[in-house]
From TrEMBL:
InterPro entries assigned: PhaG_MnhG_YufB
This protein's UniProt keywords: Membrane, Transmembrane, Transmembrane helix
Pfam families linked: PhaG_MnhG_YufB (PF03334)
The organism's taxonomic lineage, starting at the top: Bacteria, Pseudomonadati, Pseudomonadota, Alphaproteobacteria, Hyphomicrobiales
NCBIfam families named in the record: CPA3_mnhG_phaG (TIGR01300), PRK12674.1-2 (NF009314)
Source species: Rhizobium aquaticum
Name of this chain's protein: Multicomponent Na+:H+ antiporter subunit G
Entry's transmembrane regions: 6-28, 40-58, 64-87
Length: 120
């Protein structure tokens, strides 16, 4: 690998590793399932995406780079959706929010949906 390619690949690997560490710290330090899920989905998506791009560039093979790019795009499209669905399932299972949470938008939506289904 030439120097002109080694430097960007190295920077992408370091950046991806930093975002992965931030996601792991978020899982350990944040107070409830909803904020933990947010940290894991956002920082984890960026971290793994940077690592995938670094692997694709480092391979110096266009076919591998295209596969890595396709994997990154797929991950960007699916990770936030799956995190939202997991948060919704946790809320429907009545997993409590941390007391420091300021507002619960899902509760407002449930009240609106309940009023629509069963009007008074």
């Amino acid at each position: 690998m030439t120097l002109w390619l080694a430097i960007p690949v190295s920077l992408l690997i370091v950046g991806g590793a930093l975002f992965a560490v931030l996601a792991a710290l978020g899982l350990l330090r944040l107070p409830d399932v909803y904020t933990r899920m947010h940290a894991a989905s956002k920082a984890g998506t960026v971290g793994s995406g940077l690592l995938l791009i670094a692997a694709g560039l480092g391979s110096q093979d266009p076919a591998i780079f295209i596969r890595a790019l396709a994997g990154f795009i797929f991950f960007i499209l699916t990770a936030p959706v799956s995190a939202h669905l997991l948060a919704r399932a946790a809320h429907l299972a009545h997993v409590p929010l941390d007391p420091s949470s300021i507002r619960d938008d899902y509760a407002r939506d449930e009240a609106r949906d309940e009023e629509t289904v069963h009007p008074k």
